[in-house]
Amino acid sequence: MPANLPPTYYKLKHQHEAAKTDEERLSLLEEMLRIIPKHKGSEKVVSDLRRRIARYKKDPSEKGGKGSGKRSHSEHIPKQGAGQIVLFGPPNAGKSQILANFTNAKPEVSPTPYTTTLPMVGMLQYENIQFQLIDTPSIMSDFISSTVLTLTRNADLVLPVISLASDNLLDDLDMVVAFLDEADCETLETKPVIVANQLDAAGAEDRLEILKEFYAEGFQIYPISAETSVGKEALLQEIYRALDILRVYLKAPGKAVEHDDPIVLPTGSTVLDAAIGLHKDFAEFKFARIWGPQWHDGQSVSRNDVVYDGDVVEFHL
Ligand SMILES: Nc1nc2c(ncn2[C@@H]2O[C@H](COP(=O)(O)OP(=O)(O)O)[C@@H](O)[C@H]2O)c(=O)[nH]1
Ligand SMILES: [Mg+2]
């Protein structure tokens, strides 16, 4: 059942993703819980919020993960593009191969486990926007890397990657699940996405069936091949959806729509947010016209009206 959450909820959710301290995170989660409509469709989100609030309240000193104490800001990578996506997972899943094939970055790809020792960033093109994709050192079952933990906590979206070429597939996934739990990543609204890479490998189809049998209920499994790019499009669409963002297009009065250069905003943003996203000087606009399925063509909108994905806006200064 769709949760149909109000725009304010998404605003808080994005503030929560951008929050720098646990105190901020806790207060934003509490605010999200306060404003969320409580009905059958939002049950899962409500219980998820309660669980996460309880975790923050239980023992704040434990929240840094395995005695790490203060969060390390040095491990934080500044966000770029329409969303920051962090790949993580067991050795040889193909995380570096994904970065290498889907972006212009040149990470080292190798059958030797733990080849990647530092995070690496690349820009991933999706239609007319770009996501920031981050490759990370592989996780281990008995050691939680503070670098990867910090990156996953700050990400807009985490993408666990496992390999369909691996006979340890289910153990690998258990390790991923344990890590997600430790990082307390976003699991709201939808089932977490799992990237099942190396679909082109021998025996991959059979392993995919096993994976689905055990995990399709709790996870959305996206089979891909970093080598052949099979499954890439579907994964990109899911990434866009999961980021809870929208694209608004600009039109200068009397000119054509600028389709190549959208303003990317969090779901729930307003006409005023779009104006500010364009340029701070536009915040003082006199009036605005809008086009889109929700509107009459070119109707005039107020600054507090919520915009929708694909809307075209014309500002008059
Ligand atoms: N056949 C196949 N091999 C892959 C694929 N992705 C990665 N590999 C291979 O798997 C090995 C590990 O890849 P790498 O990206 O370094 O794994 P990481 O440890 O997760 O970063 C390398 O030998 C890659 O060439 C894929 O989609 N198909
Ligand atoms: Mg690697």
Which key features would you list for this structure?
binds magnesium ion; 3 domains; 9 helices; Rossmann fold; 317 residues; 11 strands; Ubiquitin-like (UB roll); binds guanosine-5'-diphosphate; alpha/beta; 5-stranded mixed β-sheet
Could you characterize the architecture of this molecule?
The protein is α/β, with parallel strands linked by helices. It has three domains: 56 residues, no CATH class; 159 residues, P-loop containing nucleotide triphosphate hydrolases (Rossmann fold); 72 residues, Beta-grasp domain (Ubiquitin-like (UB roll)), CATH 3.10.20.30. It contains nine helices and eleven strands. A six-stranded mixed beta sheet has the order 2-3-1-4-5-6, sandwiched between helices. Strand 7 and strand 8 form a beta hairpin. Helix 1 runs antiparallel to helix 2 and helix 2 runs antiparallel to helix 3. It binds guanosine-5'-diphosphate and magnesium ion (MG). Magnesium ion binds next to helix 4.
